[in-house]
Specification:
Alpha-D-Glucose-1,6-Bisphosphate, Chain A, domain 3; 40% helix; 100 residues
Amino acid sequence: MHNFHKFDPSVLREYDIRGIINDTLTTNDAHAIGSIFGSVINKNDGHSVVVGRDGRHSSLEIEKNLIEGLISQGLKVFKIGLCPTPQLYFGVHHLRADGG
């Protein structure tokens, strides 16, 4: 039996994930996203991901829960902290991670 997580339909987009914290996007959503993304990485024989965050006050809690979801799938997580998106892409390449 699978546990399914229900997301607010406005949050998941083709190109990113965006929401209003504690309204359309919660820390439980972040954990579920980490777990789901982690399972995709695993299915593709991956082992590691890079996680970065932006400067919003809510980002630390979202990051924490996302990482917990990734770790629950057995992934190694490189946490690079506050960074712009291009730095995350660089981290994935430089650290030879399987995603970010």
